[in-house]
Amino acid sequence: MTWKDHLGADPLPWLLAEDTPAVRTATLQHLLDRPSDDADVAAARKAAMRADPIRSILEAQDPAGWWAKPGGGYAPKYTGTVWQLIFLDQLGADPADGRVQRACDYVLDHAQCVSGGFGTSGTKDGGRPPPSRAVHCLNGNLARALIGFGRLDDPRLQGSVDWAARSITGSGVERYYPSGTSGPGFECGLNDKRPCAWGAIKELRGLARIPATRRSPLVRDAIDQGVAFLLSHDPAVADYPMPSGDPRPSRAWFQPGFPSGYVADVLQNLEVLAELGHACDPRLANSFRWIEQQQDQGRLTNRYAYNGKTVVDIEPQGHPSKWVTLRACTVLKARWP
C-alpha cells in the first residue's frame, strides 16, 4: 500500500497541470522526488516566477526590499515585508532571484531583535523590534524561509537559530518577557504564558530545515523537546494549552489552508513531525485518519485561504485546493512511501 491508496483518486495529474507552475514545481520535487536541477523542475520554477501569485508579490516590492512600508515588516498583516518572505518561500520562489535576496537582507536588517529572535513589531521610527517582541511563530517562519533561500551560513540567521534553541531549552537565556516569549518550552505571553503549540510547530519547521549533520547539540535538544511537546497531545484533538478561560481548541486547527501565517493546523503539525522523522509514530494514527477524511476524490479543500488579506489571492476559500492537497500527499507519502 502506498500513499495514493489512502486517497479516493490519484491527484498527480491535477497537481502537475502547467496552469499552476508553482504547484507543479513542488509536486515534481516532493512527490516525484525530482532534484532541483531536473530540467522539468527548472522549467516549472521559471514559469512560476513569471506567473501569479509569485509575480504579483514581487512586483509589489519596493526596490529597497520592503513591502507596504519600511521598518520591521510585521505590519500591516499580511501584506508587510515579513509575510511576503514567508509566503514566497511557501510558494517555492527561486532563491537566485535578486528581489528575493534583497527581501532576505531587508528582513535580517530590520526585523531581528538584538537578542537574535525575530520580533513582531518595530519602534515608531521604523527601527528594529525590541527583544520583548520576539516570538517563536515568527522566528520559526522566517528562519525556515531564510534557510530555504540559502542563508543558513549568514551570521544573522545563525543568531535566530541560537535564540530559538536557547529559548526552548532555557539554556543561557538572559531574560524572558511577559509580552513575548515568556519562558522555556514555548511559553508565550500571547498564550497567557502557557506553552504555545502553534509557536512550537513554526519554530520546529525552521529548525527542521537545518541539515541533520549541521544541527548543534543545543538545536538537537530543542528539537527533541519540541517533538515531545507536540506528541504529548493527540494532534487530531489539538487540546494543547490555550489562553485561560478558553477550554476548546481554536477552530483553525481543523481548517487546513494555504498559505500559512502564524496559525497552524492538524496537517502542519503532521508536516513538521514527518519532516523530523516521526511520520510512523503510532500516536499520529488518528491524525492520519483525520487527513484522509478531509479528502474528496483525492482533493482537499482550502478552508483558511487569507482571501482579501494578502497582496494577491492565492486560492479561493472553500474550494478544492492544489496546495492543501499537495501538503496532505506529502505527509501521506512520508508514512506510506
Structure, described:
The protein has one domain: Glycosyltransferase. The chain contains 13 helices and five strands. The protein has helices at residues 12-15, 21-30, 39-50, 54-59, 81-90, 98-110, 136-148, 155-169, 197-208, 217-231, 266-275, 285-294, 322-335; strands at residues 181-183, 187-188, 194-195, 300-301, 320-321. The strands form two sheets. The protein has a three-stranded antiparallel beta sheet with strand order 1-2-3. The chain has a two-stranded antiparallel ribbon with strand order 4-5. α5 crosses α7 (136-148). The radius of gyration is 19 Å and the shape is globular. It starts with 11 loop residues before the first helix and ends with a helix. The model has no long low-confidence stretch (mean pLDDT 97).
Summary tags:
43% helix; two-stranded antiparallel ribbon; Glycosyltransferase; 337 residues; 13 helices; mainly alpha; single chain
Topology, element by element:
Layout: H1 12-15, H2 21-30, H3 39-50, H4 54-59, H5 81-90, H6 98-110, H7 136-148, H8 155-169, E1 181-183, E2 187-188, E3 194-195, H9 197-208, H10 217-231, H11 266-275, H12 285-294, E4 300-301, E5 320-321, H13 322-335
